[in-house]
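Researcher: I'm comparing several assemblies side by side, and this is the next one on my list. It has 688 residues spread over two chains. Same procedure as the others: predict the full complex and return the structure.
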Amino acid sequence: MEVTSNKQVILRDYVTGFPKESDMQLVTAATTELKLPEGSNGVLVKNLYLSCDPYMRGRMTKREPGSYVGCFVPGSPITGYGVAKVLESGDPKFKEGDFVWGMTGWEEYSLITATQALFKIHDIDVPLSYYTGILGMPGITAYAGFHEVCSPKKGETVFVSAASGAVGQLVGQFAKLLGCCVVGSAGSKEKVDLLRNKFGFDEAFNYKEEPNLDAALKRYFPEGIDIYFENVGGKMLDAVLLNMRMNGRIAICGMISQYNLEQTEGVHNLMSLISKQVRMQGFVAFSYYHLYGKFLETVLPAIKEGKIIYVEDVVEGLESAPGALAGLFAGRNVGKQVVLVSRD
Amino acid sequence: MEVTSNKQVILRDYVTGFPKESDMQLVTAATTELKLPEGSNGVLVKNLYLSCDPYMRGRMTKREPGSYVGCFVPGSPITGYGVAKVLESGDPKFKEGDFVWGMTGWEEYSLITATQALFKIHDIDVPLSYYTGILGMPGITAYAGFHEVCSPKKGETVFVSAASGAVGQLVGQFAKLLGCCVVGSAGSKEKVDLLRNKFGFDEAFNYKEEPNLDAALKRYFPEGIDIYFENVGGKMLDAVLLNMRMNGRIAICGMISQYNLEQTEGVHNLMSLISKQVRMQGFVAFSYYHLYGKFLETVLPAIKEGKIIYVEDVVEGLESAPGALAGLFAGRNVGKQVVLVSRD
């Protein structure tokens, strides 16, 4: 197959503060021929769904080398997780027509050379877009973060912040399936309703309407919190620290409230970790990819049986991608933010 | 034995800011007879050594009930760890003449009813005062905090703050015995010399002479820190967070730099926990007292063979106790701060 033009979303320049739609730009790269170079071990793919994830904010900032993910290159297409169809393959693990998920480019067509970071999609009996979320990186993040990092036990109290997001909605449902008591926080009435009515959280609250987060947590957790799944950082973390129970665990998945600040907020209540003997642990999904097979065996049937529900916020077209990514940091998405590039 | 007067150190009132010697007062309680009440299961002891420990600062502040140790009662004697001789026992586990260590009062004689928190001293072939330190609570703190909480491995890099203190000097030596590379920080040249020359730390520095703690840590740990044994908190923790290695561990034993502040300092670099997948865990020695037997089997021979050295700062007389305890928070002690009340 010969491709002679390729729409792309490029990052104009490194970003400070909240990312704006105008920090990105849709361009059309003219190319005489987009095909797999002779002898290449890579794959040429057509991108179907692109994933907007909070960690991408870090890649928009110029940083020292050595960070666990490199920064974007201004003037070049943004890269991120996505679902794609293989058009041409130089890697024997993939063949034309295969669906894959993994790191790809924000463009119509990508030439992926790092094929070791691609997963072949075997089950297409679920929405393909799920492989950007529940069946992709956010899914493993929720699964490993909750089951491996939090060491949860039935009956424990669990608090999830950014609870309607790509990861939070799953953590809450995993916790409910285990028999935990789960409370979530989110930033709008619509999201709080989702938590209560769709995802089965025991309780949920809108953090923007709580003048005192400590008091809110004491209301929902009169006996304290056994497990906190941390997605936001800052003031919420400080309030949680005052409400942890003895031997509690905090899995730090992300701190989205801090990503756009010039200077991160100071966290003042770390001394609570001592008396309550709390374990606080940062993690990245990447370290748990070896559990992906086991994860699929658990989650795929649960999706098909309706035991786990996943809510996506899908925008159509590459031209909508800059707005969708910027919106993620303003909390505009309801559920997992996905960009549909092409249905097939 | 009949005792008719009892010198005591009382806390005058709850303390704000740095404790001063004048926050405490030496009084002589007149008593017609200090003896074990009829039918008591407690023990009457003569106190020999009293321990000045950083955690005592928290007990000088009026706090909500539910804290893991209660506050002191203004007008009543301070309580704390100590070594004592049993004068009279209503508990079959102890008899007259036994030496014990555990929670006692800051006074010449104490009637201890909570005998379950007393340990009988079997080996008196070492200085009795050691049972306030290396062979007592600080010893178990260092042992459990390092071996159980930090999951150390030979060859790893270890950083210890407040490293010449009761706990820090032991952590450094335990780490050296395991084959780790150990750097310590302390607050004076004398202490730094101790770390280097007496305790066998690979390197040591005076944090007060480092305008940039991050730069200091980068100098001593060009490859980063695998294990941080946290005794101080605040700015040091913030600098350490920037220098942790992948899968690093931080055992939070205490945060002495924060205990006397009206408002604790904010810690800004917690996001580093995520990308480096660091585990940070608070702990208290009390949860590891079941390891005391095993601990003694390891540490007693090491002391006798000179493989572990312990430095104490001993002041004589109950009247010196208020100054010694206040001095602890100003860093005036060099080594474990002990008050000798009576030699036998």
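Model: For your comparison table: Chain A touches chain B through 32 residues (CB under 8 Å).
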